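Ligand-bound model needed. adenosine-5'-triphosphate.
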Amino acid sequence: MTPQPAPAVEIRGVTKVFNPAGANEVLALDNIDLDVAAGDFVTLIGPSGCGKSTLLRLVAALVESTEGNVLVNGKTADQARLDRDYSMVFQRAGLFDWRNVSRNIELPLELMGWKAADRHRRSAEMLELVKLNEFADHHPSELSGGMAQRVAIARAMSFRPGLLLMDEPFGALDEMTREHMQNELLRIWAETETTVIFVTHSISEAVFLSTTVVVMSPRPGRIAAVVDNELDTRDDSARDTPQFFANVSAVRKVLRAGEPR
Amino acid sequence: MGLNRLRGSLRAVIVFSLFVVLLMAGYTGYKAFGQSVDDAQTDWAVIGSILPRTDDLTMPSVFEIISGIFAEPRGINEAFGSIVVREAAFTLREAAVGFAVGVIVGLSIAIVLSSSRLLERALVPHVIASQTIPLIAIAPIVVIWGRKNLDFLPWEWHDWMSVSLIATYLTFFPVAINGLRGLHSPSAEALELMDSYAARRGQTLWRLRLPASLPYLFSAFKIAATASVVGAIVGEISAGVTGGLGRRILLEAQRYTTGPERLYVAVLFAAALGIFVFLTISLVEYSLVRRKGTEAVL
Ligand SMILES: Nc1ncnc2c1ncn2[C@@H]1O[C@H](COP(=O)(O)OP(=O)(O)OP(=O)(O)O)[C@@H](O)[C@H]1O
Ligand SMILES: [Mg+2]
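Prediction:
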């Protein structure tokens, strides 16, 4: 038997309480266990307020767990943050509007002390990856929502982190742009072999994108089910296969139940 | 775009000139009304009972004021306007140094206060209270203190530098307050983004907080620049420093009856100086801050 590779993310017995002992005490996450293997595409889905963003931000070490621990690449989440093992993408692109597209993509590289020539080479590569070559010198205000989000993805991938954390990155886009962005993301995921944790409200988005769908239930936030999402093809044509529809109904059923089966 | 901008500036200049002409016409008209009351010895309904009457002493004619610019004061072989321009340059230097020091001090205060909520809450009231002390009270203190205690500096201390310090007292305030708002202006998401990249504090300051502050800072700079001129003029007067516009205004006020147009000229030049520094800042802003919405400021 070959030894299993270490998981990219291990979440063990994690509980998160906001404002503990205060008037606004919230049990956002209750005793969560989750493993994400390297190369997986995991989506977190569940009703609003069930703690998806909180779980993602725990992995990013932007909030601290009240109990339990989170390991990223075998390290504490905060060490992984300091080592730049991951990158985040938010619902809003959050580009700096005083920087043009290239310089937005280069932001993390600047923070890591890369030389200018290396930065420029990499940002050109990233623009190629997200197919925005002609827009290198444009300012964020001149981009459409979808283009801005592609720049945000290019920025996040610029230093080739092994793990990508995405919090409803396509939530603000229209249906057409959204499907296009999903195709692009799958292409980039396949090309770069990145591990992705992706938060969404959309069942079809979760089923189309991920290898694993994690269904969460609210108050307190718990994992209701982990659904393995087999798809024979992973491109635009998969959207119309019976397998896709079957998986969509499977996830919907678990979401409706709201409790472990 | 360049042409549009040029056209826009041209339009602004035309409107400004029209406004000056309008102002002169209004002034002349009021003067004529106010004077005719006096001449005819009849009380008009408005002027004379509600608005003050006028005469040549209180309101010299526009013509007199303009010729006052070119007239050579008795015993001096130089147009009055050229003397005042030299004095305005003296005051501008005081104001510019006061502005620069004020920007440095104000920004430093903003950066320090933005680093901790506790510091901010404890010290902002002090910063605000500092502005309630009248300049007239601190001016002589600063001048005497400067003469006595700043002789260790590598350069010689002049009284005009004390006036700059007085101007600084006015200029640091808007920079500190607006700067603080600007430094707090980035969204929680933008700050989390920097955290997720493990950015150091200084990096977040330099690459996020300060650039995000620029629109806030520039509106503070405009207030501070005009305040620095006011500070320099008031500083000169209350510290008894000679060579600048403040001194000139004081002098012409004292001998007003023998040449009212000279005081008018001095005050108009002071106003022009204020407009000049304001426009300079706007120009710098336009070339630096290329954001939507901040372009139409000038
Ligand atoms: N900083 C915070 N302080 C206090 N409570 C918080 C904080 N962040 C989240 N919460 C609470 O934790 C719970 C989970 O929030 P979270 O944002 O993780 O939900 P979510 O699943 O991402 O919701 P949505 O789908 O609407 O984005 C909510 O009840 C929320 O009110
Ligand atoms: Mg959320």
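Residues 292-298 of chain B have pLDDT under 50 and may be disordered.
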